[in-house]
Amino acid sequence: MQRTFGASGRGLPGSEELRNNGVVKNVGEAPHEELATGERSTRNRVARSILDHGPSTVAELAERLGLTQAAVRRHLDALAADNVVEARERRVYGARTRGRPAKVFALTDCGRDAFDQSYDKLAVDALRWIGEREGGSEAIAAFARARIAAQAEAYRKAVEAVPPEERTEALAKALSADGYAATARSAPVGEQLCQHHCPVAHAAEQFPQLCEAETEFFAELLGTHVQRLATIAHGDGVCTTFIPKISHHASASTSGRNPA
């Protein structure tokens, strides 16, 4: 059955507290003499760029930040030593091309923790309490849908203000305004909505209902079936949702589930 996440849906007070407040702590420690040369500041910029854009190659970071690749590698080595970033193969969706996949650098859990998420423990404790006292998994799912409903109006206005072919991009911009660092990109027979940051990732690790409610909402909002390909909560570098080319016959009632 299709669920509607309208502005009239009952939201929960204080849902704003579950969002990231955008305050960034200093990433890693640095010797005192580095402070005068801006090393720590540049290192934070490298980590922040990975947060905002997802797993990135050395070349991508150098171009984005206006640094040499040698300088980027030096900062990445320091961040890796502090367990803030890790190297991995770039994940490929669809047919793999020839050659070795590009090596990318992604934030570790420790690296994500360096970006202030003050309400993580509060959110997890509250959700656990709801599950234990109010009806288990279904109660948590109801909370997740109510939380989305409380935030839905701004997303709905952004999406409905543009033609269907521009709606994924509009949704990405609206999500970015809420701290999700989202982008939209073309994919075979559709688009991918990429959320490079998740303010509630740690809570979603334990309570996948948060991801599932969000996926259902995307399907309802965009008017088509969508499929979650990856999530930060499950250890991926970015939350990726596939959105097929929208047709008039698409159904929003069968949204893709979050991968187990």
Secondary structure layout plus pairing:
Blueprint: H1 32-37, H2 39-53, H3 58-65, H4 69-81, E1 85-89, E2 103-107, H5 109-113, H6 120-134, H7 136-160, H8 167-177, E3 182-187, E4 190-195, H9 201-206, H10 209-222, E5 227-230, E6 239-244
Antiparallel strand pairs: 1-2, 3-4, 4-6, 5-6
Helix pairs in contact: 2-4, 3-4, 6-7, 7-8, 7-10
Keywords for this entry:
alpha+beta, Arc Repressor Mutant, subunit A, disordered N terminus, two-stranded antiparallel sheet, 10 helices
Q: How do the helices and strands follow one another from N- to C-terminus? A: HHHHEEHHHHEEHHEE
Going by CATH, the architecture of the largest domain would be Alpha-Beta Complex
Reading off the top of the CATH hierarchy, the class of the largest domain is best stated as Alpha Beta
**Span of the ends, CA to CA:** 22 Å
For the report, how would you describe the main beta sheet? 4 strands, antiparallel
Overall pLDDT metric: 79
The number of distinct structural domains comes to 2
Number of strands: 6
The fold-level CATH name of the largest domain is H-NOX domain
Radius of gyration, taken over Cα atoms and rounded to an integer in Å: 19 Å
